[in-house]
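#struct-help
A.M.: can someone run this one for me? Single chain, 382 residues.
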Amino acid sequence: MGRLSATSSEDKGAALESRKPRHREVFETLLAEIASGRFQPGDRLPTEAELAKTFSASRSTIARAMRDLKGRGLLSRQRGGGTHITRHDGKRIALFTPYAQSVTELGFIGGRIHAHLSELASHRADHLRLQLIGRSEKDQLEQMLAATRALIERGVAGVFYYPVELPRETSHYNRVVVDRLLAAGVAVVCVDRDIVSFPERSSLPLITYDNRRGGYLLTDHIIKRGCKRIAFIGSPYVSSAASDRMRGYRDALEDNGLPVETSLIFGKNHEDLDAAFCRSLIDCKLDAIVCKMDYYAALIGRHLVEMGLKIGRDVMLAGFDDEPFASLLPVPLTTIHFPAEPFAQVCYEKLTAQLANPSVPLPGQTLIDVELVVRDSTGNHP
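D.P.: on it. Structure tokens below:
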């Protein structure tokens, strides 16, 4: 059995100066021991009391670190038998993104989720494939089905499925893909959005952000800054995530006694956000604009500035995603932050549960909380 290295007094002093929570330090140390091979699958870990002595930490700190390791699927506990390193058979799984033809098209949030899923897969000795639709002259459904066949032929056991936003007349394409995967015995978990639009729900496990709360937080914040006429720029396609953001926007207006004006709700593609559209927005005598993503807000903000308007004073502007550029714009953008690490971990836990019986989907929706990030685009703030 592997043996944990004792921590020197110098190391302990450095750890105490660290800003990381103590349980996180213990977690990362144990994780490194497992990743290095010092502990092998099936090895029994020292008891919590022994670890507490080794790390000069409380039992509750050790218990928290052990829970986090267990949450990653690295530990198994047997009553009366102690805690052991989990044995894995190296499952083949995939993140399937039928809207992307290259890694860069995953976007900021999708890229971060993929990175964390890859990290989890490496710790669990699983094989994670990133399945894109590739480039071809085929129509979209044929491309999606070709990618689906590639996954099935490679013997993939489970898929994190990232549905593509589609026009309503082709929105059933996601269902066709999922049906093919399920028929082949592949476990499927939906990532970020469902394969159907509200108020429908599929029978698949869904892990998504609390987009409705995010829409509410942004709109309520802007109303409290004194705004009354607030536009929402959403998606023209079927998207449960974009729909939930708009529902949060509507909820906040109603809760603050303001009318929901359908004339101020727009479904647009990014290429539609030109100078002419932005002039039409200003003609509506708006106080603020909530965009479905930071990229939309940046495009609109550029046109408004060229028209001589001051963002944060003449008109307030906000988005979603908290992309790196949001804080670097000439007027930093108020936005909604989506944490990727806990999102990826829940996705992995759901797929692991689904792999136990792929033919019987485990319905249910898991919401990952979001955070309002206030910057100058919604006015000066403390």
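A.M.: thanks! The chain has three domains: 9-85, 92-209+341-368, 211-338+372-378.
D.P.: also worth noting: The chain is about 40% helix and 15% strand.
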